[in-house]
Fold each of these.
Amino acid sequence: MPKRKVDELEGREGQLSRRDFLAASAVIAAGAAAAVMLPGCSAPFTVPDPPQEEAGDGSGDTESEQEGSDSIDTQPTDTEVETADDTADVEEVVDAQVEPEAASIAPQVASGNWDLEADVVVVGAGSGMMCAYRAAAEGARVLCLEKSSTWGGASKESHVFHCMGSETQRSIYRDLAASSGISQELAAKVLPLSQMEPEVLRGYWKSSVLYDEGCHDSMAAMAAAAETALGMRSVPTAAHPVVSDVALTSALLDAVPRSVDLLASLGVEWAPVRTLGDDAVLFGLCPKDSETAGFTARANMEVLEVLYSEAVEAGADFMFNTPVIALLTNESGEVLGVRVRNSRKGVMDIRATTAVVLASGGMCNHQDLLLKYCPSVIRSCFTSSNREYDSADGIRMGLGVGALMTGWDCAAFTDGGVASPAWLRYLYQGDVQLSRQPWLTIDQRGDRLPYRELGERGPSRASILASSPGTRCWVIMDADFPAHMAASTQSASRKPLEPTMADAGAKMDRLPSEICPDDWREGMLYAQNQGYLMDANTLPELARKMGIDADVLQAAVDDWNEACSKGVDDELDFDPSWLKPIVSAPFFAMAVSCTLLATYCGLATTPRMEVQGAHGVIPGLYAVGSTMGGAGGSSSFGAWRAPGAGVGSAIASAYLAADAVLERLSTISAESQGEQESQESTDAPMDNASAVKQPGTVVS
């Protein structure tokens, strides 16, 4: 398998000013009850008629065009595809755009003058590559379009595949049982969640495996275990109902293990997740050796590299630096293709004889859509970790052709939200990791908050922060915090990056310094320079900068120091190694909340990933990954509900889309053959048919 260098620049910090999300949440509080409250039913919700953007001839100022116009062509040309190891240049990332309104992108009526043609056009070279590979492997002509200069999208930023009952997983667990004392009986209890009863699926959206001894004894016990795993306010209640699509979720739950096993057959070497503790070992997989020296960033980049190479080998074509401008339809609304702006060739119309598959991500970096469809993000998150991805291109194009939306207010949060002036703050940045350590953490009343380690059962730290008054909390440190950071025992994305990790074997080249420096201190300095890591020589002065009462802060610090002096935390049972007294000036404080990881609110689909409109399926249009909605129910309050977690659900949905697309292709081919046999002659081929490349090439 050819190796390809991937160097990418981080988004230009500071140029995209974060909106005042707290102020926006006040607007929601005033009007949401009347404007956007949904009934507790399982049907997708309809979209009010939004103002539409006219794509015209492709020269308009749409979000997709802006992102593509500044990019640098870096992918190999047709003749360079096998020798691209050291030829890829650095990708220039364009900041997420802020649209004035949550507008759809209007479709254009196809003129019939096609520049290229394929059976299947996949928009997005992340999880969508699973669909591209499977369709190409079955003989379909596949073209995958990507607006950036490389493959992987948000999917390559992930670490854990939460898989449920794959043969690969069972084999690994049998080996674990033999080597590390896990009982064979316990390993055998790893079941596909698709075998659960529908009523359990409705309450169990957390993408892990129920493996507690005895938890399978009764439906009631299983439901209780599910509630424990989901954490605070993530199970159905009157205030936060789970509006579920059991058929969709069941299909995904079934497809996740099949996807994992397929990836294993293609050459992905899977291993159990180790860095998140024993719980994660039993429900998570990641590529073998990807966690060396505790470095987990972009672990699934290795999975996506295999998928990309296999898709190319199977004959799928790729065009990079090619944002899609609009869907192209006929007068009856059937999707016939896409209009794109390629960085070299300009505006092009591409025909999709069978299907357009939207795999372009969610809405993490489109703040107006978040305000409209995921208001909990506005209330609870300071930042997004999704880099330049998820600018809602595919969702807005789907809305333009009349698609329904589903997955109201459903998103995944983690801790690490910092009060940066930029909305985009990558999860491995030093200031983010600084905020995620077990410091003294208080809410705005001065009450101390518990700390949850990654992989630990019960409410996550993100749930705790999001449940706090005002959702703004504070971590408090003293002058010795750099030494405490150096001694951190936190794992995975909470592990502070140090240059010495490479010496210990960590695969640091997965995360070039242009994206994220390999020294957490650089992020700390950024936070100090931007003023959101505050310091003061006295606690009263620090309280003044924080905007809280000095006596409240002093009392919280005194209680903390008392626990530190005893070496035992009677209140919240902190690990004794976390009990570091706050005594040495200067003193430091940083406001913390949640950071957004993924949105699960998107286009409504059938379990076959066909996009649904008000009058049924929209012919020729499919949506997968975060472009699709409904996999996590609704009103998630930031909990992880997508089956297989984000990347597992995304790739499983693309797996299912391939089945449906291939079936549609077979039907169309059979109908076409029947028509040909009933006619003496066929229509002349299009003039531009010769423009279609030979399969298996990569162009920019």
Amino acid sequence: MFGRLNISQQGLIALLVLLASQCLFVGLLASELTQAQNSLAQEDHARRIFAQINEMMYAGDRCGEILLANMAMARSANERSSDLSMDTAEARERFESEHRKLIRLMAGLPDSIARANRTHQTLSTIFNRSAERAFLQSDSAAEEFYSRMLSACQENVNTVKHFAQLDASHTPQSLEQVKRLLLAGVLLNVGGTLILAWFFIRRITGRIKILTENCARFSRQQPLHARLTEEDEIGRIDTVFHQMAAALVAAANQERALIENSSDVICRLDIDGNFLFVSSAANSEWGYAPHDLLGKNIAILLSGPDARVLIEKIKSFASQDVRSDFEARVQRLDGQFIYTHWCTYWSRAERSLFCFVRDVEKEKRADDLLKFQELQLRNAIESLPVGIAIVKDNGSILSINAWVEAMLGHLRAELLGRSIADLFVSCENSEADILARLKENGSLPLRCAARQEELGLYVDMTATMNADSARQEDLLLVIEDVSERVKLEQMKQQFVTLLGENLQKPLEHVRSMISDQMDNQSLDERKRGRLQRVISGSDRLLKLIDELLNIEQLEAGKLVGELKSCSLEEVVASALDAVRDFAEQQKKAIEWQMDGLNGCTILADRDRLVQVIINLLSNAIKYSPQNTSITVACDLEGNQVKLRVMDRGRGVPPEMQKSIFEPYVQVSSADGARGVGTGLGLAICKTIVESHGGEIGVESREGGGSAFWLTLMKAEMPESK
């Protein structure tokens, strides 16, 4: 765990340990010093007690001297006894005063106080009798005095011995303990310092030495010492160093691999142009093994002038770091010359020129091929049977091909810079901005006419962004001459007009007249049959004309009108009423299934939708066997209504289930057996349904009947108030 701490934390812990030991040492020393100080205080107190005992004994001696003098005077009847009495009172007063001081000094020492009190009691008893003359004159007074004085002195001696023993037992022991503690503290400090020094030398200096050795080992490409397990700064530095060494070794290996596997030749030249290093690509590119070129001069590869120029460049580079690119022809070992591109860098630190040499022979051939292909493409564009033009965002012409020149009858120089709007006008709206219309149409062509009416030129123009242009807003225009197509469309329009005005109305008039003749009861069956065939032929021609007119209207986008809400039930009912007689004639029944859709409304052009359903019902009646039924079913799918017309006919082959909705396509040539068709009905139905935003299709299996279906948008019902 200690190894996970950083160096500052480890040093802080070591200092705290040393500081704690110092504090412990100071605390113990302070304790011993306090104890020694207490011992010295006790010794001083004992000395004061000794001095006070001496003062008290001195006062007692004085009282004893006066007592002895009084005894002598009493025996000699000396007249000075009154003076001695005064001295005795003063001495007694002093003795009592010294005794009280001694008692105060002995406060807290009951044994010593008891001894002092016994001494005081002993002396006070003898001193109190000094006032009795009989005692003073008795022979035993002196003996009693000396006996009591001896007893008092013995008590004082015991007190002094007691204090002397106390002083002798504490003070030397305290001083000796302080000495031992001081010695232990010095040893502890020296030992702790040495231990910390050894610890840090071992943990820091030793590991730094390992780092230093790792640096030397890495420079000599020798294995490194094992990673340090500690997680402090030095351990992290060692980890980072190992990671760096591994990354540098990997980078060196990658660099060596890149150099060895590079298709370009990598080499290093000294200031005189001699090879110092050559990569292995020289073998495949130049035919020389790398060791064959080491020490050789660059002149072995380059022709004389190229070699001299390169060596002069190298010498001019010697004072600075310079990069240079140039091309030179290199002579291979087999004598073949190849074009090469040299990228060079002079390194002042290495005092050598680093060269990267790439074979550009293939690139030159590729450039020549690209130029040839570009020329072919330009010739192809010039020869295209459509016009190609590049215009700016403002419409001015940047370039055109020869076909545009031929269409407009002007030279290229006359057309460049002119606006495309000055040359063409939109056929739909002559006032519209032709460039804006081209951008809106996207990939759809825009029908335009040349402003020079005498040219009679009509074109379909398509615009795309010019990806090859530096200006991304430039447009590439594809201009197709459709003058002949326009003429054909005009002829078709005239033909349709001819059908509608000059053929349809006379046919209707003829049919009406023949129908009137059919009402003549005098006609025999033979004539009636011939008239009926004429009426059938007229109906067929009128139907063909009507469908052709519908196709024309579909192409012009005029067949379907505005979509309005209408009742699905009424639409289907109208279609059923229209084909009911035809179904009865063909002996076919029609079933109607609209479960849950009563009152459903749809968005539709009612008349055109009725036309679609009639067409699907007519086909179902036409191609169903007799005495079978045809079913009309409606289902709701989300916000759409799906209507299906199902028959029991021969079915539609899978490969024709999509193509039958194209114009002039029928399932088989035998379809005419049940009535002549044009192949336009389903195509018209498909266009009408898609104009309603729906889809139309068929589900069928051959011999199992068909189910033609279409989807219509359901109208939103208004909220009830």
Amino acid sequence: MLALWIHLLIVHLSVIAAVGAAGTCLWAWRRSTSEAWSTLCIVVGILAVVTAGAHESGPPTRAHLESLGAIAEGAVNAHAKAALVFYLIALGLGALGLQTLLSGALRDGVASWRKILFAGGLLLLVASGLLTAHRGGSIRRPELRGVAGPLMARGSVFADLNHNRHRDAGEAGVARVAVSNGRSVVTTDEEGRWQIPIRPRDTLFISQPSAYRCPPGPDGRPAFYYQYFPQGSPSGLDYPGIDPTGPLPDRIDFPLWEGAASDSFDVVCLADTQSKTELEFDYLRDDVLEEWKTIPTRSAIICGDLLYDELDLGPRLQQLMGSLDRPWWPIAGNHELNLASPEDSTSLETYQRLFGPPNYSWNSGRVHFVALDDVVYEGIDPDTGRARYRGAFTGPQIRWLEADLAVVPGDWLVVLCVHIPLRTEVDAHDPTLNVLDATAILEILHARKHRLILAGHLHQNEQLYLGVDRRLDPQAGVHQITLPAACGGWWSGHLDSRGIPQATQRDGSPNGSVLLSFEGPRYRSRFLPASEPNSPPLHWTEVEGPGPEERRAIVNYHAGGPRSRIAVDWGDGVLRELQRQPGVDPRVRSIYAQQRDSIPEWIEALPTTHLWTGILPSSARKEQVVPEFEITDEYGAVRRVRVPSSR
């Protein structure tokens, strides 16, 4: 802090010196061309430091410090490099100008106060530049005494052959593994060694390479990170954050175990497990997770709202997920916020204690997965007492993502995992349901050959294709799959034969999960309804038609999207194409009306994009046939199923 105030004083004195030098310049211009040139050099030099120094090292905002620190961390930051050039020009011109001016001043008898002014101005210039370099990190030369470099974390990534999580003799380092501090990314050398700047409250992590897997923790989550919180989280939070970690260790070594070599694998994905009581966790176990045990997948992903504000229930979810005996990767949601946090920057520190960093990445096969926290906490609404938040990405997240993808092969698939969708057709302009400013992220994804977005939050299925600026582009847009909620309609509704709520989602589809199947950088998705993963992928309802004697069928294809097609044979051998017509499923309205005694009033049927409609022929109305549906999914695969009416 003392260095800051000294520097600010120097900046202001430099302004005074620059004004005095400008007046002297006018005087010297009439005396000698060389003196005018030298005076101009002094003026330019001082103004260069004043301009760059005042901007880069004025009030010490986080943005300024991060900008100046970018050079030391190896990041490409033109702004910080320009500041460095300013300082070098200032020092060079100042030295040249002083030498020439003083030689002319001594010869011609320039008043002593002018000599002092110029000499003092140059000293202020040099001191200003060095103090700015010391504070911001733009100039870090080891030969400059008193100029401190950044705190560096060091260690290695190694093949842990005996699975004891310690590096033993004969265990080789693993090269070209990405290591990050959440801002910049480095890769390990041929010996598996790495080093990277670190600040208090940073989390260091590696991106699991495809040929290996990170060792599992007690709850099955991969152990791939180290949290550096020397003072711990702030006190006074509703739920405890991270305990003090103390001084930075001399070395941080990350072990890796041998992984699956195949580029073909499955991952089960879901969102919004969102259980508020021990009983609801029992529902999650018996309704959703039991089915996972029968499906061989390489890993699992949960896209946010793992909990439901009751953060002390985190260990129960950890225990349930650990029982699946496979790695799982969590993403932060709005219901993991610590609502007593004074600001967004500390609102997820309870989540970090339980589940790890909110931003990270990992690899499997030829797929690069990225977890990004897109929930910005804005405090408690004084009128409602509820949390205020919006969907957004920050500048540091975007810069980290660019650095992260810079070391990923261009022909790999990038899967971005978030909680709040970048866009939803429920309401495309609600900041709590969308990331309204997603242009930078979409530009990054559009630059990739293969890309996919996974989201949650809506408690319904939705598939969209997003162009830059979030416009809908079914042909060339980035595919976004909004995953079903594991808790469906928040574990509400009448109990089924197992004693578990029906939990119908607001779009009329069952609660459940999605199975993603990867072949190299290609993928397919399949909706898995909870407790009945092999049940029909659609239901249909007969309603009144547009004409007085007509009847109409409304078909809800649960996993349908803009590229899906539905045709139906009503028993007469004629295959009729149905028209996609987004709206509200009449069946879910009926369910909510009949079960309102066990469904909260705030849970309402919402419009969905996966409805198709068509007129029933008279023969189908009379004979009550069970129609055969021909379904073409988002990937062009065709299947036929017979489904009776749900009326």
Amino acid sequence: MALAALLAFHDLGTAAPAPDRAHPFLFITTADVERAGQGIQRGGVFAGLAKELAARAETNRIEDLPPLETAWWEAAKLKPWSDTYPEVFHHTWIVPMKWADLARNCARASLVSPSPSLAPKGRSILLRLSDYTFEFEHFDVGMNYTVWGLAALDAYDILYAGFTPSERERLDRFFERYLAAVRKSDDYWIEHQPGGRLNNHYAWHKLGLGMIGVFYGRPELVERALRGPKGVADMLEQGFKDDGLWLEGSIPYQFAETAPLVVLAQALENARYPESLFLYRSPNGHSLKQSYDALVPLLFPDRTLPTIGDCYARRAHIGESPDWEVLCRQFHEPAYEWIIGDRKFRVPQALFTGVIEPPPGEPPAQSSRLWPEMGYVALRSNEGTNYWSGGGWSLFATYSGQPVHDHADKLSLILYADGHLWLPDSEAKTSAEHAFSSATQAQLNRQTLCHNTLLVDGRSQRFPGQRLDLLDFTNAPGLKQATIGDLQGRLYEGVRQIRTLVVTTNYVIDFFQAASGTPREFSWLTHVDGSPAAGSIRATDAFALPSSAPWSYLRDARSAPANGPWWEAFSAGRQIFRMDCLSDGPAEVVQCGFPRDDSAGASLLPMRLVNRRGTNAWFLAVYRLVATPDEPAGLGVAPAGPDQVEITLQLAGRTYRHRFPRR
């Protein structure tokens, strides 16, 4: 059969939904319902999840659902797509999702609750939602429609037997319009690539095509989803780096890519499709399972991922994703069982997708790691399974250049120690409904000012579009060291930068060097999640910040001169974090507050800028956890030949020496 004929559009009315199948079979099966019932009978977790599901379905009223409006589109369709993100997000995701989610909750609750009203309520909601026109056009609508379209299709599958033939025809027309809209969006993305060569939107489009193909017996749609342009096979082969990390420049966005693939894989498995997406491996060895395995080595001891790229000020336990429940049943992986158990409470989806009582699982051993393709490095003083106790240092740094959801954060670091994230990668939480397109995200969170790195001339870094330079990575007992840099001036034209990081049992060294052919202003940036406790300098001079963004977001700026070593200590609970600092000449230390959200009265995160002007600059910091703020440290920096510099550190009567590359 020719490809054109294979992918030709067919009216859904020509095929009965789910021929020769007992419903439900798509996202959950009759076996899943039976297992849920067994878990409920045992009491405990599944009984609680069923009770919560029924309560949500019963207490949320149809009358309180927002109207499915269309009038807004008359004005919106005349605007450039870049100007309509918020309203498109609201009307093509948020509003219909409330309807689809309640319909699905009612449908699923009807399977485990004796209430006779839930199934009719779910059918009523779904029939009202079926008037949705799908006429709205934008970059995002294919993904937006699928996010809630899968909930609507799940509800239809569960409640299928209760609809009359005419009602089923009405719902089939609804999903026909949905399919046409998703195909149109997918075609647009394939032709124009608005989010780059590969993007998580393709995964959502392919889920939409695949789930309709499975439900309506349309194998050509499944084929397009799996092996068509920008299909699953293409994404797995070309979209993952190192041992399975997605290429969009934001670590948490890995779930935006893989979550729809897990849903599609489960639908294919449930429908007994001849191929298993769970078992598929691309020619270069990438697989869906590998993309989840790859996340575990990134984790901080508190089971959160490094907040690299767009994260919208969220640091969630990795077990918050419902995907682990599906994968745990599929692969019986001890690490997945550990993640589920460690979260302490099960996600709602576990009722139908999870194991009733998963084994406790074994925590994986964690070590210092390098991700050379992505451009990430993790240095950890406490390795093995004891890493998860939270003791010791865990440092994460990036020299990545991956596009799409990345920030101007290159050569930045994140530092965790003894149960607390001391040096976070900062984002202010936005009040906007659509965080991606918010002013706070664009004007502040994606800018260099938010990150623990070097700012030059008060301007954000350029986006290099490629990985920067790795000069050294040492992973030896008692010494974890890495040197990353920008040797070609890709972040700032004409500026060469090198950052060397050392993690030992008792301290962390951070040495940042920069050089330029012309005088520049170098500002070393640090954000500390702790309350200022003590310090050797007092910033009492008023400091005028620029009135434009991102500077306009900062608060309470004061400055003080630093003509030699200086230190500052911060507290969090009973812990004290001390940073001892030195630069290669007189510096200006600016103390200010970084807002935790974009409200007028936002609480502030302590932020420090150390400013030096000239053609060369270096900044040295030593980080420690101390019993009292006034535990001294002696710092020294001296040349050690033409290509190296020696750092001398004196602590508690002992002298430590480290040699680093010289700029």
